[in-house]
Design a protein that fits this description.
With about 325 residues, the protein is an alpha/beta fold. The protein is about 45% helix and about 10% strand. The chain contains 16 helices and 7 strands. The structure holds adenosine-3'-5'-diphosphate (A3P).
Length: about 325
Amino acid sequence: SQGEVLPQSNEFQELLQSLPIRKSMMNTPIYLYNGIWIDESCLKAMIAFQQNFQAQDTDIILVTTPKSGTTWLKSLVFTITRRFQYTISDENHPLVTTNPHGLVPFFEIVYPHNHVGTPRLFATHLQYTLLPESIKTCKCKIIYLCRNPRDTFVSTWHFVHKMKSKLDPSWQFPSLEESFDQFCEGVSKFGPFWEQILQYWKLSNERPEKVLFLKYEELKDDIIAQCKKMADFMNFSFSSEEENEGVIKDIAEFCSFEHLSNLEVNKQTEQHSVPWVDNGLFFRKGEIGDWKNLITLSMAEKLDQLVEQKLQGSGLKL
Ligand code: A3P
């Protein structure tokens, strides 16, 4: 089966050649493998991860669609679970000196993973069906985060354009319309995005102790309530003393866009916590509704209709 191919082997090249291929929003090749669109380097790391990773009961796994607030979620979960080891007023707090992606590694970007401390925290953009059995069967927890698809598309578009233009200023991109149509077709990295959202949504209903389902907009709307929800879910509940002392509010402010994006480490254009990506690129505006500044209302409505159709009957609204 495809899952048994060794990443370093000739077989891997054969596998690649056998897969349907398209161009990503960045105009680089992506392959359709077991239901997701993925690039060559992530496919290699993903196969190594699927074959070797052993989950532990205490692991916490953060799953997101790309550009839906992964950086924010990583910083919140790291700060909440490490609050007895590192106080946020400490000028050497790991999040002051390291970009959140340097503390909570992605499964499918680099293998083996370089995580920091306990409990082990990992992140992924992979669909649930692609996770190894040990994650599914042990007691580890999954926090899932998605975002309104209009803003997700627009955030992705800005991200890939900034990244690739810096690496190669003469780089040719597909037009905005082409990129948008392809996103609606489901051909985007780790997409179709609705497949991933639906898998974790269903699971969060069937196994609420396993999967906590969050939305970027809800974090924006009431970060204190969402921090409490996350902490309870991870068995890191805040005590009433902590609540009265304002610990949750302090953590929310510490992980806010304003605070994190102004830290020297996150303004860096030469430091890469994820290969090729400047730390600064993970922070753009951090707002709801910025789609208005890039796509037309008719594009937005087309996307809404598609999403409504895909999510029909699930009880989920985005
Ligand atoms: P915008 O491009 O809309 O500004 P990811 O972390 O999954 O790559 O998502 C990146 C998006 O999350 C970007 O959205 C980025 O600005 C936003 N973001 C990053 N850190 C954030 C924070 N602490 N609070 C809110 N949004 C944040």
